[in-house]
Design a protein that fits this description.
heterodimer, A: about 130 residues, alpha+beta, OB fold (Dihydrolipoamide Acetyltransferase, E2P), six-stranded antiparallel β-sheet, three-stranded antiparallel β-sheet, 5 helices, B: about 375 residues, Elongation Factor Tu (Ef-tu), domain 3, seven-stranded mixed β-sheet, six-stranded antiparallel barrel
Chain lengths: ~130, ~375
């Protein structure tokens, strides 16, 4: 599973990682899951949809709040994490591992590189926290 | 920064340093900065249902009403007959408006023949005090706001009696029955422990001087640790009280909801000749309430949150007043005021959850009732 240094990040706290097969895995960051608190529902829709960058691809609901999840880049959703239907808490416990959300085939893989690197994202978080 | 400036205006509990040391997430609540959660709402909620949790509720307001007319005044401002409450007992009641709605819902403790302690919601403290001031003409009473000098913690859960028994001196908590209170000491500091709470579990609310709060908290937390008790925050307090169908002022009850609509008729003593709102409530009782507080369970996925519109067919009939995920039931639940004709258990409704119509149905309250303990 990806190390943060191998991922790219959005200002909405999604991470995206390009896997060996060219498909990218998407999830939410540890910061995002901490902000939400205990997650009780994850809704991701069906695979096979084509989405644009910034389109809503799902919803994560915690006891206290609900957060929309957006596509970091455009492409086709090829897989959703079925395990989250019964075990939404995986997003809390392993946001970058078993708690991944969807896998997507980017229409333009170069778009991913334009997103924030791990160090950019860390800087973004510390600035947002001030 | 603006946020910091706002936060610095917030009041702090006498246990503020303890919460920070425990790593609590602090949030603004009713003018205070209070702990939302420590380990997490689900873990804290389940600990209270299974073992025990310790809550800081020092934000609550405390008024002492005393003097020759204290009884008569208490009977005037509430629909309950507080003059008939025995010394050493507490009652859930309300400060009512002329229209029979809620200035606040409160707990009243009979401290002495001519002395009551009123515990009021933090957000209503100033309003309640002003209201009581406007009502005291012709009553020989003293009214003192002791909120800032008073700390209040709630030890709630099936193990609460054993935990309190291991640290308290002066009385046996196992002998204190529901809605009674007793005075004693914890670690040498004077406390008053009442068998009351806001979770649907057996539990105690424990008053102390604000200056003694840390000593009392530390003793309870240390004793509780042996029983699996955890510190618990406002988030768990909210899910626990909602499962128990206990109304929250500002959401489920306010100055527009009557005591009868809220289905809290048990606090009214109809044999009293006079109390604020009596005429309006009598008329409403005879006419029949137009709407009533109900509970619902969401049948689909998603949580219906406060403000979500409730539909009967295509007609909006209500809005959700409280709604959350119920950790014990593992379902989304909530409360609302439905027209009386729809307010029957089993009635199907739909709720607009962020643009999606989700099916739900009315259920009898409470959602959760604690398992009856074995007879002793």
């Amino acid at each position: 599973m990806p190390r943060p240094e191998e991922c790219r990040f959005t200002r909405d706290h999604e991470w995206i990682h390009t896997d060996a097969d060219g498909v990218a895995t998407v999830g939410v960051t540890d910061f995002a899951q901490q902000e939400l608190g205990d997650i009780v529902y994850v809704q991701l829709g069906e695979p096979g949809r084509t989405v644009g960058a910034g389109d809503q691809i799902g919803e994560i609901e915690s006891v206290k709040a609900v957060a929309e999840v957006y596509a970091p880049v455009g492409g086709e959703i090829v897989e959703v994490n079925e395990a989250l239907a019964d075990s939404p808490e995986l997003v809390n416990s392993e946001p970058m591992e078993a708690g991944w959300l969807v896998r997507m085939r980017p229409s333009d893989p170069a778009e991913i590189d334009k997103l924030m690197s791990w160090s950019d994202y860390e800087k973004f978080l510390s600035e947002a926290g001030d | 920064m603006a946020t910091d400036a706002n936060r610095s205006d917030l009041l702090r509990s006498p246990l503020d340093a303890r919460h920070r040391a425990l790593g609590a997430r602090m949030v603004p609540f009713a003018g205070f900065e209070m702990p939302l959660q420590y380990a997490g709402v689900l873990e804290e909620h389940r600990a209270v249902r299974a073992r025990a949790g310790l809550f800081d509720v020092s934000h609550m307001g405390e008024f002492v009403v005393s003097g020759p007319d204290a009884c008569r005044f208490a009977d005037h401002v509430t629909p309950s007959r507080l003059s008939a409450l025995d010394v050493g007992r507490a009652a859930y009641t309300a400060l009512t408006t002329e229209r029979g709605a809620f200035v606040d819902d409160i707990l009243a403790y009979r401290l002495d023949e001519d002395r009551y302690l009123l515990v009021v919601n933090a957000a209503n403290r100033a309003k309640d005090l002003a209201w009581l001031e406007t009502q005291r003409e012709g009553y020989d009473i003293d009214l003192v706001d002791e909120s800032r000098e008073t700390a209040l913690v709630a030890l709630q859960g099936p193990r609460s009696r054993e935990i309190l028994a291991s640290v308290v001196a002066g009385f046996d908590p196992r002998a204190v029955r529901r809605f009674r209170f007793a005075d004693g000491t914890i670690a040498g500091r004077p406390v008053r422990a009442a068998r009351t709470g806001y979770t649907g579990e057996i539990g105690f609310e424990i008053f102390s001087a604000a200056a003694d709060a840390e000593v009392v908290w530390d003793a309870l937390l240390a004793a509780g640790a042996e029983h699996g008790a955890v510190p618990a925050g406002l988030a768990a307090r909210d899910t626990l009280r909602l499962e128990a169908a206990l109304p929250l002022y500002g959401q489920d009850i306010d100055e527009t909801t009557s005591v009868l609509e809220a289905d809290l008729e048990f606090i009214i003593d109809w044999t009293k000749d006079e109390f604020i709102g009596r005429d309006a409530l009598l008329e409403e009782r005879d006419r029949g309430v137009a709407r009533r507080r109900i509970g619902f369970v969401v049948d689909g996925r998603g949580i219906a949150r406060p403000g979500c519109a409730i539909y009967d067919g295509e007609t909006q009939v209500a809005t959700v007043t409280s709604g959350t995920f119920a950790p014990t039931l593992e379902k989304a639940i909530g409360m609302a005021y439905l027209p009386t004709s729809l307010a029957e258990p089993g009635r199907a409704i739909t709720i607009d959850v962020r643009g999606r119509r989700v099916p739900a149905h009315v259920v009898a309250l409470p959602f959760y009732r604690r398992p009856r303990s074995r007879p002793r």
